Amino acid sequence: METFLPAVSYILTDILWPLVQFLIGLNLVVFIHEMGHFMAARWAGIKVERFALGMGPRLFGIVRGETDFCICALPLGGYVKMLGQEDFAPQEDPDKAAEDGQEQPAVDPRSFNAATVGKRMVVISAGVVMNVILAAILFVIVCMIGKDYPAPVVGAAAADFPASKIAITWEGDAPPAAANPNKKAPNAWVGLQPGDTILSLDGDPVDRFIDIQMVASLADKGETFPVTFRRKIDGKEYIGKATMGVKLTPQMDMPKFGIVPATTLVVSENPDTRTSSPFQADDKIVAIDGKKISRAWQLEPIKKNLTSKPVEVTVERLDKTTGKIKTITFTEKPFISCSANVLYLADGKRLKATILADNPDKKQEIETETGRKLTVDPSEIALKIDGKTELRKRDEIAGGGYFTNLDILGMTPRLRICSMFKSTPIERDTPAEAAGLQIGDITQRYGDRPTPTLREFLDISKKTIGNKTRITVLRDGKNVSMEISPREKNGQALVGVGQSMDLEHLVVASVRKGSPAAKAGVVAGAELKAINGQKIHSWIDLLEALKKLQGQEITITARLGNAEKTYKFGKLTKNDFQSDDYKYVILKGVDFRPLMTTIKHDNPLAAISWGTKETYRLVASTYQTLSSLFRGSVSTNQLRGPVGIGQVAIMAARHSLLNLVYLMAVISAAVAAFNFLPLPVLDGGHAVLLIAEKLRGKPLPIKIVNIIQMAGLVLILGLFVALTWQDIARIVSGWF
Q1: pTM of the predicted structure, to 2 decimals
Q2: What is the pLDDT of residue 360?
Q3: Which distant-in-sequence residues (6+ apart) come within 8 Å of 483 by Cβ?
Q4: DSSP code of 586?
Q5: What dotted CATH number matches 154-262?
Q6: Domain spans in the chain, listed from the N-terminal domain onward
Q7: Structure confidence at residue 713 (pLDDT)
Q8: CATH fold group of domain 264-337
Q9: Residue 484 phi/psi, 5° resolution?
């Protein structure tokens, strides 16, 4: 009963009720579309035999006059059946009937085909027009109520993307040279900065972050766009202008500017994960080490200057008992982060490179700096070294790739579980939950591998999908052993844990071949105790000691079993150790809410203007997306079928009714755009046939019409099945 009731409650409130809301909204969109056809047909004097909501067998309905208004079994779609109109059945050829000596049936003057081309065009177009009107009305309602959207503010400009490289000119006064992060060329301003607000892009005003994403996602390779932004420095505003392109690689689903949306300092809840973090949802960070902060981008300079010392993080938290805000200060120990551009070769040499492609499971295609396409075999890793793309065999790289732990002199810490994924009340437990793993567990053995690296952990999980293997962890000073069965999710092995490093215990999990530690004779399992006679208690202590001892002879004392041993490293070279390869981070694993902006107009005329523009934008972007899809700049993975749309709608309905209304407006605009594509069976296809009839002075031959209609039907059904299959595969992979 303890598990049954939560499961029932979850199904009712999180699945069924949002699904009902979605179906009501979707059928409203369909009803309005078909009502357009119905009213236009009545205006044109065409007999309407049936007005149906849904598809398939008729469930119930009512006959009014000469029309059967009914509900059908499948609550998706709908149709208006007019006299003489056959969308899905081959039509008989009257000319062939005459040749066979058969009497041609009289054309009913109230049939669809008896109406003029102009009237039929009005009837065909009316559904699309009604969907456009519905979308505009819903957008106006949303605008007058007010809706929050991610703000068009830069959280970060990703390295190696256009946003971080644009050359800036200033409108009016330029900011003081001292404020330029590029100290080598203080008068040359390059790249967007955190906190910049995008004002316009490609000549159009920008109100929200999605406007930026939309322009980027529909861009062609090599296309550039003028951008205007506002930057605040010491309370003064400066307006900057630049021209920005996009970056598109075979690994990306769509082109990107490289602009990361800004966040607030309010901690967001991750409903899918449990962590050991002391921060709670809705905590607001207000100070770091006593220094007040009010913007998320103020964290970056603080993070860049972190040392090994613990950091005090002050938050404001709502006391649910008293309803008052209380201030709490946490002492957070910094975490060591390694440079992503530093790799080690199997022979121990240090290599500075950017990883472009690393997939041990399948081939990848990348584009080199010269624009040449390059195929990367699973046995290879693509690297950018000194600005040039190179392929290296996977076994040339220590550990077979970049999924390694912290590496100091070739020694790595053990893995520690820092988070666990949650399962919903109706899903089976994750493998980690089923096995009994807990946050804080330190991995001692996994399968046949003692103290595995992250790469080894992933490889073992992959090899044992669907089978039981044994995992041993250190918990409260004791070894705990259990069986675990990894399973597949999204093509990867799912265990259900997030892992970091055990920085508090100086136990060596593994030793890299060819490294200083390997040459000194250090082995896995050694517990480091001192360096040059100075006691050390954590990996941070080890790193700080090495920074002070650069250029000196190094000896490390360790306990191995019941004995102590001293390892001689000699003088460390730059290949052995560089302090710049490491930095300290705080707030690791803490997610923040996005920075939002509210779009609301109390003036009905302003709301109507916004709703009209939003409808136009959605219709236009639908056609642009299809165009980009055919050009290959947008992946088919971005498309959603009926099941995928339903999933998005359920998530929207869970959040708020307003979000669902907005989504219905989007769907209505998309239905209008899609329905008027010049494809047979769709309204746009009928319009093309009517235009051809008008130009010829008579209808196309029935044989040709039948072929066109059947080809269109096969195409639409094929697309429907393909997208539905993709939707289901995406959802199922998420479950299992």
Answers
A1: 0.79
A2: 77
A3: 435, 468, 469, 470, 471
A4: -
A5: 2.30.42.10
A6: 18-142+661-735, 154-262, 264-337, 341-400, 411-416+432-578
A7: 64
A8: Pdz3 Domain (2.30.42)
A9: -140, 145
